[in-house]
Amino acid sequence: WGAFDGATGTSLWYSSFVGDATRIIDKPSGTNGLIIDDRLILLIPKRGLVALDRHTGQQLWERILEVHHYWATPILAGEEIVTGGDHGVLAVLRVDNGAVQHQWKLPEGEYPTGLASKGDRLFVAMPNGTVCAIRLEDGELLWSFATGKALVDMVPTRRGGSSVLAPPFPWMDWLLVPGSDGILHILDPATGSVAQQIDFGAPLTATPC
Predict the structure, then answer these.
(1) What is the pLDDT of residues 2-32, one digit of tens each?
(2) Burial (0-12, 13-18, 19+ Cβ within 10 Å), 198
(3) Phi-psi region of 63 (alpha: psi -120 to 50; beta: other; left: phi over 0)
């Protein structure tokens, strides 16, 4: 990871991460960094979450978690960081020191492929083609929605079935869910019921913007 001057392209700092005898980092992270004030939060596969000073690259804290390169990019939900933790678990961490505040189980032991939040709800996309809503206060599962069969197999080590690979997107009064079934599912975020479905005829792997 590195930082560059936007005007000149000059390198400002560079940080590399290595594992150890039990945690060999052999794949690049597929996630983006999360900027929170002066911190840059990074998901490092097989290592966990690392916070850097975004101005200098100095490491501020590290939280060891069993994460992989296909986990979702961490997000800020309220005043805490939400990320995939150990397999089948969401971890909620403090921003200032990375302390784990909560660990919530995901349905069917899945991992998150996309995360979003709005108000008191966290929305989680998973590789089995489902999206669920979780209450931020206590981790209670509020609803779950299943997309159709994926048009192309894109989930590592899996063939057939459904998948959602992009984060859900809260938009106005709706929740937009891009599915690998080629359909943009427009849901009621309160109940998970379908308001509209738009068929694009090809897998949707990016969040609408």
Answers:
(1) 899 999 999 999 988 765 545 555 555 667 8
(2) exposed
(3) beta
In this prediction the pTM is 0.90
The full DSSP string for 117-173 is EETTEEEEE-TTSEEEEEETTT--EEEEEE----SS--STT--SS----S--EEETT
Tell me the DSSP string of the chain: -EEE-TTT--EEEE------SS----S---S--EEETTEEEEEETTTEEEEEETTT--EEEEEE----TTSPPPEEETTEEEEE-STTEEEEEETTT--EEEEEEPGGG---SEEEEETTEEEEE-TTSEEEEEETTT--EEEEEE----SS--STT--SS----S--EEETTEEEEE-TTSEEEEE-TTT--EEEEEE-SS---S---
